[in-house]
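Sample A.
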Amino acid sequence: MKLPTIYNVYLVAIIATLGGALFGFDISSISAIVVTPQYIEYFNNPSGVIQGAIGSALAAGSVIGSAVAGPLSDRFGRRDSILFSCVFWLVGTAVQVACQNTGQLIAGRVLNGFTVGITSAQVPVYLAEIAKAEKRGSLVIIQQLAVEFGILIMYFIGYGCSFIEGTGSFRTAWGTQFIPCVFLILGLPFLPRSPRWLAKVGRDQEALETLANIHAGGDTTDPLVIAEWEEIRTVLQAEVEAGQGLGKFYRNGMWKRTLAGMSVQAWQQLAGANVIVYYLTYIAQMAGLTGNVAMVTSGIQYAVFIIFTAVMWLFIDKTGRRTLLVWGAIGMGFCHLVVGGTMGAHSTYHPEGVGDPPNANIVISVDHGAPANTVITFSYLLIVVYSLTLAPVCWIYAAEVWSLGTRATGMSLAALSNWVFNFALGMFVPPAFINITWKVFIVFGVLCVVAAVWFWLLYPETCGKTLEEIELMFAPGAVAPWKTKKGESRLAAEIAEVTARQQKGEHGGTAAPEATNEEKV
């Protein structure tokens, strides 16, 4: 019996982006727990490299997951590769719940990270390939919203569980990670396959019907469907002629797309927002907030994250990607420099650690009053700027720049870049809080300024363009990135051309492809 298929793109996105919720759950499963006495005592007050290894274990697994995601997705499809990854999440969560030491905790987080590596690489690809050009940003941004909802929900689950005595506090919290994965497993079989992937593997009839069901209520003669289908076939033929192998990632201008897709993900990490996302509880304690006040203050930040990303959901396809990336990096850099400068001028060193019991990762405290308020305020403001700009746009841009034949593996390379730097920074930040304290924020402030220059020089505007049009923007002889503008898609003209042909009774090249014998069976 064939399961019914959901074709409403927003409902499809909500189900598919539960993969993002897994990412969010795993982030907060550590950030809400690391400051609790139960965690500190049971794991023997892990600090420096040990805490860095625990925090970055997710990224380590994600590096592996994102590396295999492309070939896996090209072979079995975007949807089924996500379904396959869920098995590792279930196993990893079970290991975390039952862990007896730091090594087992790290192993469980690595397994969970393998799942996140695949979902973070392929969910944006899947959403980009089913979306209309003018709605692609608002659809892909649902992935970022899912991540943030996962962070918020898991954070307050962890906060609530902190009132449970003994190891049951963190074991109960980590056990709730089963829930979003089960819902994802149940929902995925009802989603359509990507029409572009279907065309790529030669299932043309199914590809056209899926495209029609998503965009035109099943009407394969709709001008939009025909125009998009003709673009897909033209681009796919060109890529078949270009050949196979890793060489296709740098030949004929492809290196520009490879550089853009991988570097935009690297800069999302190097901009330093995850220092705040992962370790705001540490910063709150540095600013003199303790106990429930520190926990609730940190949790509110995650709600702010969601609110402002939701605001951007309304405007993401009306504002250029370049604009948001450049000004977002500048704004984040300013916030980092203010936080670092304030800490440097108004803090006291505590080599034994801050807190009760002392947390060995927090060795400075900021003076009470205006300095502490400034640190908290600009930490919040940094998250606001990040949620409006780099947080959603880096994932959207990385999903848009690839060609049809390279999109799955290309997005895997982009996600791989994200997770490599995520892992490196995860290992760097806890020791850096101990060794260079406030200078961590100065480092990230400078990196944000460099990122803004990089975005302006190298990234053409992709907002409002079809995925096939974006290929031309990276081709040899294309207009300079800083001269490109949002919108101005050629798809409207192609739709008008198809409509004119239909009115004249000319259907050459517009009929549905003949099903193969295998498909007829």
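Sample B, a different protein:
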Amino acid sequence: MSTSLHAAPGSTAEDLFIDLFSDTFGAEKAGYLYSQYHFFDIYNNDRFADFLIENGAKRIAIEIDDEATHNPRLVSRNKYYDDLLKQNSMIYLGWDVYRWAVRQMQQQPDTVKDELRVFLGSSPHFREVEDYLPCQRSKAIEADNLELKEHQKDALASLEEMRRRHETIALIYHATGTGKTVTAVTDAKRIGKRTLFIAHTNELVTQAAETFKRLWTDVSVGIYMGPLKEKDAFVVCGSVQSVALHTEEFGETDFEYLIIDEAHHAAAETYQKILSYFKPSFTLGLTATPERADDRNILDIFKNTAHKLDIKTAVEIGELVSVRCIRIHTNIDLTKVRFNSVRYNIRDLESKIFVPDRNKLIVDTFMEYVSDKRTVIFCASVKHAEEIAAKIRERGVPAQAVSGSMKMSGRNEILAKFKHGEIKVLCACDLLNEGWDCPETEVLFMARPTMSKVLYTQQLGRGMRLSDGKEFLMVFDFVDNASQYNMPYSLHRLMKLKEYHPGKRVLGTKQQMQEDDELYRRGEKPEALIDYPVSATDYEAVDVFNWQDEAAGMLSQMEFIRRVDVQSETVERYIREGKIIPDMIVPLSEHKKLKYFREETLNAAAEEYGWTLIDDENRKELFMDMVRQMDMSYSYKPVLLKAIFAHADKNGRVPIDNIVAYFREYYEGRKASGLKAEKANSIFAKGGYTDAEARRNILANPFKRFEDMQMLRHTKTLGIIEVEPTVWKNLTDEEKREILRICDEKSEKYFQRIEHS
């Protein structure tokens, strides 16, 4: 993201977008937004999307820029072309890409929110992007000296057993960096049949081909990607895009074994085309992402999970390094720092933590504990990073600040010196969360308060790689005073550990954890902590409460209103009057509070007040019941429904101008035929009305009742009326004909009644 993104004073464009996103979908959903998501473009250059979010089976990139950023008249030609390459590479990866301008978010927030609803859906299925484990680099494994880990042997045994049961498709869920590809290649080699391996990036395809070549030396291995079309090899490693575009180049039975990498994308159209075309004897999906509920659950496709491996297990089996932790308490008060659902207000935060006492504590801690160890200090800003690095250099230790705003050449030089030990300390604010790796890192300082689980876990991942001579990763958590609702993440909070002993392992093998438990029980320090001035008898209870986790199982006020068949004003009034009590209130600021409700609270309110509960399962039936029982003080409801069915697109959306034109034609047509148009007080009977007056009339009556029942919605800035998607997509042709027939019958009876009144 360019530096021009710093918008209003005290607020970045990223913060502004998060606020608009939260207003649109609920603050608890903003935790699914992944800021500065790292990816590779088609030339394998490092790139960062401003935001990435997964919605069902789709990955969606969101870019925020000022108006000048992509205007070829205002930026250099190279910069313009580079921006196009970035966007095109996202599309090549199969992502949807949406862009908004800073000024647009500032001046037209309602438009941005309406567009978000249209692009992402009114009831989206957001989910966590990935497992966020540190990537392990490919190791040069030869077939002759390959030693499989126990989890790989277990997975292979499970796959063999599944085939004995005549099962033909399976999924392996192993954490990133734990050898999924090696497991798959070993299984394919054991089967010994022609194999197709599918992945979604050039790098993954190339890495897989190299692994096949090393481990299965007596067969030919080809690449089917871009200009390379080695389709006749015994093993073909292809990109999903290239294979999906050229399935006609292959016979559907050409391959006996099909491997789908990053299988959590398998519901996407390109993957589905491949899965439906080829007819292998066995299909294996690989993923680091656990199966999750979305538009199409991954297990709906892969049926069975052959083997699982999560981050805790990855450490337990020695695939990632064990982790110790020391908590350093500061006297900094964050309780008054403003925050949205996932981020602190940067100006408030900097004013609190960019103080000499806290900076001195960070530097003193480094010098006292780990001045001889390779350390990464995560800081809150570029200024903060530069200040800490300067103070460490003053104490005689080589240290440098690094950030995304530096020139790439200078940044890479610093990172190389750190890797080779010439620089002992890196102070980073926004660069090392993703896309960089140094297994030799021994110590992490978490000196940047963050409410983002994603960001904290990314930072942790920079130190969890295995390295020769590295027994454990030491994490220093700088713990500032905060309220229950704006508490920053710490290692213990991340792992939900309520007890803290200084230096004790937080993650480790079962034996390591047992040994630590025994030592601390006796009040003894582990040998690894001899040089650390901590007492093994110290103990602290940790508050691991996380409002986002609590809210994940509750209904927001927005969702509560969507679930009952009464007007939103009624629910809001009942809450104000204390007739409905929220189960959790999250104070974002002095003037803004989030209210959440348990399912039992919703059910109790519905029973007490005689409300009908609405969900995606019964919404269509309730809509049909509403049409069948339609009461009519005017003739507007049938006319509105007929206008919608006459002009709706495939998604059930109709420009309101089309509805206004339909109303005008309908009532003026009645008058032209000598029929009564409406009651005398109706503007459609009086005539002489403007389109704006007709629009106001339609939105007040009859639209309002359908809106209150969550059956129709009005996207004001786009001028669109939309049928609730869970209603529209489930209506059969027969039901649509029934609705139109009911509308005609109701209208006829209504006009018969007013003709004689």
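Observation for Sample B: Residues 1-11, 131-145, 290-299, 303-308 have pLDDT under 50 and may be disordered.
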